Every structure is written in C-alpha cells, then in structure tokens.
Amino acid sequence: MAPIRSTTRSPAVSIYKHDAALDASVGKDGIDYTRVNLLRNTAVAKLYEDALRYEPGTSISSAGALVTSSGKKTGRSPRDKRIVDEETTTEDIWWGPVNTKLSEHAFLINHERAVDYLNTRERLYVFDGFAGWDPKYRLKIRVVCARAYHSLFMHNMLIRPTEEELKTYGEPDFTILNAGAFPANRYTTGMTSSTSVSINFKLRQMVILGTEYAGEMKKGVFTIMHYLMPKAGVLSLHSSANQGLQGDTSLFFGLSGTGKTTLSADPARALIGDDEHVWTDTGVFNIEGGCYAKTIDLSAEKEPEIFGAIRFGSVLENVVFDEDTRIVDYSDKSLTENTRCAYPIEYIPNALIPCIGKHPKNIVMLTCDAQGVLPPVSKLTSAQAMYHFISGYTSKMAGTEDGVVEPEATFSACFGQPFLVLHPTQYATMLAQKIGEHKADVWLINTGWNGGAYGTGKRIALKYSRAIVDAIHNGELKKAEYVTYPIFGLEIPKAVTGVPAEVLNPATAWQGTPQTFNATVSKLAALFNKNFAKYADQATEDVIAAGPKL
Ligand SMILES: Nc1ncnc2c1ncn2[C@@H]1O[C@H](COP(=O)(O)OP(=O)(O)OP(=O)(O)O)[C@@H](O)[C@H]1O
Ligand SMILES: O=C([O-])CC(=O)C(=O)O
Ligand SMILES: [Ca+2]
Ligand SMILES: [Mn+2]
C-alpha cells in the first residue's frame, strides 16, 4: 500500500487567516485573549519575521531554516519537573524517581508568575493544535508563549488544524503557558532552582519558567499523553514508527539519541512518526505532527531525508553557521552537542498522512551501549522483551539533559523513564498483552559502541544498523541461524547481509584482551541485575529469569 496523503490537512507551512471574533474571549487560564498583538495560529512567514526582529541570536540558514538560540538551557531539565499532587492524581502517579510532588498552591504561584509575564509582553503568540492523529483520542493543545520561535516550534510539532478545525476549535483540553525567558521564584515552596516545568492535571495546564529549551513543550505533551492514554485503555510509547509497502508496521523504542528518528527515516518505508506513539485496539497512531531530529554530525550522505527536511519553516536550534555563507556546520558542538531541528512531518518525503498505522509486526528496542558488549542485534523471547523493556538499559547521550557531558550508563524504564507518569509495570503489562495478541517479533539493536567501550571502541556504523533493520524487514533475520550469547542469553544471528560477521558478536568484535571483555560483560550484567532487583517483586518468574546470569 502506497503512502496516502489526505487533502484535508493544512499545508505544512500554514497560511492561517486571523479571526478576531474567535480570539475575543478571556480564557480561564488567566491569559487576556482580548489584548492587542495577540497572534493566534500565525503564518510561518510572520513568525520568521518576528523571531528575526525581536529575538537576538536568530538568523536564516542557507537552506532557509530559522536558526534560533534556546539560550542558557540547550537540553531538558528533568530535575526541575513537577506534577501537582491533588485528589485526582495523588493515588495514580508514580511518585519518586521522576515525578516530584508540587502543591496546588505552589503551582498557582508559578502560574501567576507566568501569566503576569505573558500578559505584559508586547506580543503574545497562541498556537492551537492537536496531539494524536486518531480523532477518538486526540487532545486539543493550546500553547501560549512570548517567543515566535516557541510558537513556530509547536506549530511544527503539534498536528496543525485545518482552517475549518480552527474555526470550531473551542476551548482547549490542555494549555501550555511557556514563560521560559522568565525565571521561577526560587523561594516558592518546592522549587530547587529558577527553572520550573510543572503540570497540573486537574486544571489541565502546564507552566514553564526559567528554560527556553523548546523540547520541554513537546515532552510536556508526551507526559500528558503518558497519563491520559493508559487511563483511556491505550498504550503510549516513546517510539518511532514506520510502515512497509505491504502495510507492515514497525516500532522503534529507545531513549534519547538511540536512533528512533534516524532509523525510522527509511526511503523504503513510510514514516508514521519519529518519537511518540499510541498503540490502540485498531493500530498505532502518532501523537505529533512533526519530527525533532538531532543534527550533530548530520550529513546529506548518511541521513538524506532528515537533511532535506531542513528548509523554510524548519526550526534549527543552537547550531553554528558560517557568517558569510550561512551554511550550517553540523559538526560544531560549541553551543551544545544536542543541536536539533524541528520540522513538520510532511517534510519527510514518504510520510504517511494521516499518521496512523496497523498493529506492529516488528518491534525494535534500541539501546546505545557505551560498554560495547551488547550485540548489534539479537532476537528476543517474549520474556526477554519484557525484561529489556522494563530495564530500559542505554546510555544517556551528551546534552539532551542538562549536565550530561559524555555517554552515561543508565536504566530508563520503558526506554523513556523521564516521561513516565504511572509505574513502569503498568506500561509493560499493556505492552506484553499487545505483543502476545498481535504476535509481533521483538529485536534488540545496539546502536552504540562496538569493538570496545566508549573511549576505545567506536559507535557502530549507521550503515550496519540500517542493514540490520533491512534484514528484519525483508524477513532475512527471522530465518537466520542463531548462536546464544553467554551470560546475557541473547540469540545472535550468525550472519546479516551487509554487516561483517565478526561485528555481530561482541566477543569477536572486541579489540582489547579477552580479560577486559569478560570483565566488561560481567560489570554490565551486574548493573542489569542490580537495577532489576527493584522490579523483582512485581515481575513474573520467566521475566526475572530472562535477565543476565553471572
Ligand atoms: N548506528 C547508528 N544508529 C543510529 N544512529 C546513529 C548510529 N551511529 C550514529 N548515530 C547518530 O545517533 C543519533 C541518533 O539520534 P536520533 O535523533 O535518531 O535519536 P532519537 O532516538 O530519535 O532521540 P530523541 O528521543 O532524543 O529524539 C543521530 O545523530 C545519528 O546520526
Ligand atoms: O525531549 C527532547 O529534548 C528530545 C527527545 O525527544 C528526548 O529527549 O527524548
Ligand atoms: Ca528523535
Ligand atoms: Mn524523544
């Protein structure tokens, strides 16, 4: 089935007309919608002009993208994220490692601070969009912000309403107030810095203070969906998704920087989405209307679809360019290693619009192992799939989170712990049920180090990871011969077309001594076991047994 394009969607570069009557209301959120210079669903060209005129550090790249600066914060601030503890959330939320309680009163102080800041700006931008391509589950998300850059970012990342949908939009389901240029008051109870990202599920509002990193907004929407979707009986996932010509869907799970965006952009397959999906009783839908690609070391040769998506309308963050030519130097890490580009999904040539696919046939769990001891690919049993989903082992890549400067081993439950709202086992239970019901094959792909750990080995070549993904899709791997990888008990294929055989087995790929290899395997296995101990009382025997054996 060839990708279908709907004609009802608005063009990726919108040309909305202003509708004064619709804007003339004061919302419950404290924002004065009757004010002058309220720019609602503003045309992309106008957002460009405003960003260039009013926001220092803004330029146009040689390709036509809007080059912006997110200021001091160039990655998310997970330690400053809060969820309001109130009667609707107190029993539900997985309080602890990622979800920190905030009182209703403290939220109101943050909220008032944001509202006062936003209402006193010269100009205020409002973008009304949708999260979720399936009309049954979609949420109306309003983004109110003071920077044209932020409005353009969410114009690209949310699903853009048609003129008709905008006319009948009504009240939003959730509002994001982004006052990121203005700090939180550090003396507000519960604040530990001048950065604050807080979500109030009862009031259906999110408030951002003290960070202008735009990723907070898109991951705020994801956090909201990670709470509301499981409550609605469907499974939200930190994954990309694409579809083959026969309509076979693949999901790619993975923490930040593991390759969801890179590997889902595949010329042979239609892109459903690059980062956030929901698996329902009828298939998989994308939450977003755009993609947010890492651009560090980006090249037209290695990642042509993404490179080509960087053009008029795209938002390019924290990159360095040549003063004369305006050509971006994607190898420049001087501002951050987490350079990014946000573009509408239609900018990827074979995007599937509407972004809804069938039930997944293949599920790929991406890990970026900086120890260099996990195989480039292995086939997982259903117990192993659960074990690895709950473990979520990978390395945090430099820059995506504040303070991370080199790959750091981490266990991020469900391959997206920073965005989980409920306990990991709730998502895992739903996933196990869905994999069983739809008989999906599950694969673990290490897109990280090979031949040695970070510092001695090197990251596995993208062309090898792509060849592995191709071998999954064309059925080669399902039929391959396997050997069992000791300790981890993973099944490694003996051969994959396009990948040297010695690379496939970490033991033969290892450039150091067998002693250092064995020690590294044991060290990583011990880390897995230590991490999984905290889930042992909630996991079944076969899942516990699917972990490494020392
Ligand atoms: N073997 C490989 N496979 C995949 N990506 C690789 C590989 N080697 C290097 N890379 C690079 O790693 C990065 C993967 O980032 P990508 O944007 O795909 O992450 P992501 O999983 O989408 O993360 P996020 O959730 O933060 O958006 C890209 O910069 C890509 O060029
Ligand atoms: O949130 C971001 O900055 C980018 C992203 O997708 C992630 O980290 O998973
Ligand atoms: Ca991505
Ligand atoms: Mn992500």
TrEMBL record:
Domain of life: Eukaryota
Reaction catalyzed: oxaloacetate + ATP = phosphoenolpyruvate + ADP + CO2
E.C. numbers: 4.1.1.49
SUPFAM superfamilies: PEP carboxykinase N-terminal domain (SSF68923), PEP carboxykinase-like (SSF53795)
Residues that span the membrane, as ranges: none
The keyword ATP-binding is assigned to this record: yes
UniProt cross-references to Pfam families, sorted A to Z: PEPCK_ATP
Signal peptide residue numbers: none
Pathway: Carbohydrate biosynthesis; gluconeogenesis
Molecular function in Gene Ontology: ATP binding; kinase activity; phosphoenolpyruvate carboxykinase (ATP) activity
Keywords carried by this UniProt record: ATP-binding, Decarboxylase, Gluconeogenesis, Kinase, Lyase, Nucleotide-binding, Transferase
InterPro entries xrefs: PEP_carboxykinase_ATP, PEP_carboxykinase_C, PEP_carboxykinase_N, PEPCK_ATP_CS
GO terms classed as biological process: gluconeogenesis
GO CC annotation terms, alphabetical: cytosol
Family that this chain belongs to: Belongs to the phosphoenolpyruvate carboxykinase (ATP) family.
Protein name: Phosphoenolpyruvate carboxykinase (ATP)
Species assigned in the record: Linnemannia hyalina
Gene (name only): PCK1_3
